[in-house]
Amino acid sequence: MRISDNPLRGQQFPAALLLAAAALGLLLANLATHDGIADVLHAHIAIPGTGLDLSIEEWVADGLLAIFFLVVAIELRHELTHGELDSPRKAVQPAIAATGGVIVPIAVYLLIAGPATGEGTAVGWPIPTATDIAFALGVLAMFGKGLPSAVRVFLLALAILDDIIGIIFIAVLFAHDVNWAMFTLAVASVVVFAVLSRVVAKNGSSGVAVLMGVVGVLAWGFMALSGIHATIAGVMLGLAMSPVPSEKTRHALEPTVNGVILPIFAFVAAFVVIPPVSPAELSPAFWGILIALPVGKIIGIGIFGWLSMQLRPKGTEPALRLPDILAAGTLGGIGFTVSLLLANLAFADDNGIRDQAILGVLGGSLIALVLSAIVVTARARSYRRLAAAVE
Fold first, then answer.
1. With bands split at pLDDT 50, 70 and 90, how would you rate the model's confidence at 2?
2. Mind telling me which residue stretches traverse the membrane in this protein (predicted)?
3. For residue 312, which phi and psi values (nearest 5 degrees)?
4. HEC assignment per residue over 48-68
5. b vs e for 12-35, b when ≥16 Cβ sit within 10 Å of the residue's Cβ?
6. How far apart are CA 361 and CA 298, in angstroms?
7. Residue 4 has what pLDDT?
8. Whether the Cβ atoms of residue 64 and residue 235 lie closer than 8 Å to each other
9. Cα gap 166→160, rounded to integer Å
10. Please, what is the average pLDDT of the chain?
11. Residue environment code for 163-179, b if the CB has 16+ CB neighbours within 10 A, otherwise e
């Protein structure tokens, strides 16, 4: 198989695989298989002499997902230096839309699950702010044949900015009892990693590349011991790596991330028991996320995206029309991967609310997925009709 034919490097198949893994996790959690799988996920694996003692589900969320964030950071770095966000002019419109896509979902969530409820669920406000780039682009590729490329560019840029905000939330909001000595060692390891990556870029030494891998693992370990979420190590390593080896790394890891790491994480994150209660008894966190993801994103991206299009040279047409921006808004409501991680972090001390928050992420993302499929299909059909009329 040629590399270019590998479905795991595409957009549609990984999105379908991710959804299937989450559905399987949710299904098995609510059958007789629950206890056996839960025992495995809760089993601890320690590395002697390091202080690292994590359950398997923690190894997935802290370890495997760090590799995903490494790849995300490499893509972020490329877009910020050579891609869709490499200048303020390119970034301003999607940045405004992304701002709306964060502020409005937070506001919607807090209206439903904020301090006024007295339920202690206000801490979940970051959860509905994320957009799953891979999933959103997968849906766009599946249903958006005929849409102008400007829609994909706009969606990609605002989703990247969403990811940056999500990474900041993880780093700032969910650090606990920070061990600054370990954090300093993690940063020092990242610096060494960056230097080694430039040696590899210059000389192509395989021995130095192996050493890079060792230093990268050390950076992750120090970060995990620092009290700051270990996935931030993946972000720092991806941003620090030299362009040539970083692109080779991304290319090498992409099929594993899409085909193994993200489905495993989706399975583990979605392995929650649906509570046997009436809808009225569900936590405000569930309803806040369920509504804030699809509704908050559409409103926020729609309004702020339309406003951003007014910032253009006088007499020129906007890059996107409001229906196209609304299509991007529906896609932005597919939170999934980062939202699942944020749900685990926000409610780490309350398993019951955490599970309902995860169900809210799955439900809200599914609603957004269905809405986006309908809206994107309609817009694509409209553009195809226009193209046929011109011909």
1. very low
2. 59-76, 96-116, 122-141, 153-174, 180-201, 208-240, 260-278, 285-305, 325-345, 357-376
3. -150, 160
4. CCCCEEEEHHHHHHHHHHHHH
5. ebbbebbbebbeebbebbeeeeee
6. 16
7. 52
8. no
9. 10
10. 89
11. bbbbbebbeeebeeeee
- Residue pair 130/348 in contact (Cβ under 8 Å)? The answer is no
pLDDT (tens digit per residue) in 307-334: 999 887 777 888 889 999 999 999 999 9
DSSP class of 46: E
Which tokens hold the place of 267?
């399975």
Q: Check: CB of residue 232 under 8 Å from CB of residue 61.
A: no
Reply yes or no on whether the pLDDT at 197 is more than 70: yes
**Residue 153 falls in which region: left (phi positive, over 0), alpha (psi -120 to 50) or beta:** alpha
* Distance, CA of 248 to CA of 136 (rounded, Å): 24
pLDDT > 70? residue 297: yes
Q: Please name the helix (run of DSSP H) or strand (run of DSSP E) that holds residue 44, with its range, or none.
A: strand 44-47
Unique residue bearing structure tokens 């995903």: 68
| Distances, alpha carbon 197 to alpha carbons 47, 69, 173, 219, 314, in Å | 27, 18, 30, 14, 46
The reported pLDDT for the residue numbered 136 is 86
Mean pLDDT value across residues 294-306: 95
What is the distance between the alpha carbons of residues 8 and 251, in angstroms, rounded to a whole number? 11
**Token pair belonging to 276:** 């046997």
Burial 215-229 (b: 16+ CB within 10 A, else e): bbebbbbbbbbbebb
- Candidate ranges 65-79, 215-229, 261-275; pick with highest mean pLDDT: 215-229
**What was the pLDDT predicted at 391?**
66
The answer to whether 325 and 302 are in contact (CB under 8 A) is yes
In this structure, the dihedral spanned by the alpha carbons of residues 285, 289, 290 and 293, taken in order and rounded to 10 degrees, is 170
User: Are residues 143 and 23 in contact, defined by beta-carbon separation less than 8 angstroms?
Assistant: no
Neighbouring C-beta atoms of residue 111, cutoff 10 Å = 15
In the chain, the N- to C-terminal Cα span, in Å, equals 37
- The CA–CA distances, whole Å, from 336 to 127, 197, 332, 362, 377 equal 10, 32, 10, 7, 21
Cross-strand bridge partners of residue 374: none
Structure tokens at 245: 């080896």
